Amino acid sequence: MSGFLRTLWSNLLAIPSNIRTGLRPLPTDPAKPSVRMRRAFFYHLHPMTVTRRALRPFVTMGLGLASITLFVLLCISGALLMVYYDPSATGAHASLMDIQYAVPLGAFLRSLHRWSAHAMVLVVVMHMFRVASQGAYSGRQLNWTIGLSMLVLTMGLAFTGYLLPWDQRSYWAVTVTASMLDHFPLIGESFKELFLGGSSVGGATLLRFYALHVAWLPVAVLVLMALHLWRLRKDGGLAIGSHVSADVEKVPAWPHLVLREASYVLVLLAVMFVISSIFSASLGGAPDIHHPSNPEKAPWYFLWLQEMVSYSVPVGGVLYPVALVLLLIGIPLLDREKSGVGMWFGPPKAKLVIMSSILLATGAFILFEFLYMSRSSGLYVAEIGTDILNPATGMLVLSVLVFFTSGILAASTRTACLSALFVLVIGLVGFMLVGVCRGPDWIFYWPWQEWPHGF
Amino acid sequence: MAKKKKNNSEESTSESSNTKPRRDFLVTGGAILLGVSAASSMAAVVRFASPDFSTGAPTSFALGRASDFKLNTLSWLRDRDIFVIHDKIGFGAFSAKCTHLGCIVQRTSDGFKCPCHGACFGPEGEVLSGPARRDLPWFHLWADNDGMIWVDSASEVAAKTLPLSQLKQQSGDEDES
Fold it and tell me: Would you tell me which residues 53-112 of chain B have a C-beta closer than 8 angstroms to some C-beta of chain A?
């Protein structure tokens, strides 16, 4: 009896210190970092030791970590916005007005969610090009494919989120983007109706996009993200070829890598918070579904497609994007080279060839656009030939030519693939920039040129 | 049990060659079954998301009486995104949705223009210039016995106006079918 009471008393006294050690299963012995890595959840995502090379900022630029950070930030800010959001055609815009103007910190959270979404699309795309440029997909086809799937899901998340404010811009941007599917042969139209829940954007679309945006897509990203990190560990961390002799010395991941990552995350969060405090996300009036503005544009990550579709449906809307997607999926199959992995653009000779391809593509793009636009003062005339003779076809043909030329010049399949990929991407970025410059009636205006009155 | 074990070890060489095709068959068959179930689950999800009812506005609706549309005028039914022509031959209706990317076209002095990307259409919806490649679609019209004109915006017809009498006959056809 007294033994029991004594034990109980000492347990009660020890509660503060036992809470501390019980909730924190870390070793108190700092000489054993390995135990720390094995026992703490967020540390166990890392290998026990990493190369000094992995600590250098410009090896990966931390783009994968930035994607994860932004995703978490989006989940939290999004879950908070869900508290007030009403996903119905009649209530959506009003609930947005509440969040923007009446809810404490609502405007800040909206801005944070929106800028993080744009940043995430950008960062995920950059992450993909970092991996491609270093040939880091080599021998890692599964993880490359998982990564591509997450890129698609990220764009899906951004696009479904674009509709949710339900203002004039979001309504028509989604209408315009979804209508591009109409031009895709065989499956395009039924695919569009499945996602829109009808032939045009309406209340059913809003509810579907909302379900995809807050449940299906984020959960899918979460599952794939876990797989992606697990595969990264199984594949041996950062891809590195035998050529890299500098900085291969191993150091413990804790604290060298973990603390660097933690500071990176904090800086990124700080940047996003500052941007969101300064720049407020726009919110237009309720949509007029019978009266589009002039011009109506897709979100920037689909604007290149819209620009190309306005040249030609078969080339810009089908051939070019299909070629790009096939090249991205097929790159680990076309290129089986083991050497040069982990070097930006490969060995010096390959680097030279790829850089020349990029320069050539930029010059060719400007030339193609100049020829095409000077043809009829920027207005597209439906005449026989525009389906074939347009900048999209030009860039597509150029990428095929560059594929073979640079492959033969550098005697390397990787150089061929990367050169062709970069030609297509220069086209893509160029078309996006031209799309940004489009004014009323889809006429090209330089950013410093004023649009005619009334727009 | 013991006897069975003995048999196994005795026939280990011959059995491995005997059971391998069977095991391969079971593994392949199992994989195919799993694939089929996964595919049919996907099909079920797609079917679930494609209801038989229309979630949007009905595609068929009454436009108005013949007398509502003045002779030689073109009326814009704003809430329906549709244009109705009444000329000396009769009535016709075509879509106001641009065939390029689905914006609503606006009237100009010599036809229609899409405000989004500058596609131009002639007075009967034919493509004149711009990124659009298809003419504005014309819709099936019919008149009921009260002289009310109906349209089905889900069924496209060749571009021409029809006399009221023919619209009434079409109404009769509808009833039979």
Answer: 54-56, 78-79, 81, 97, 100-104
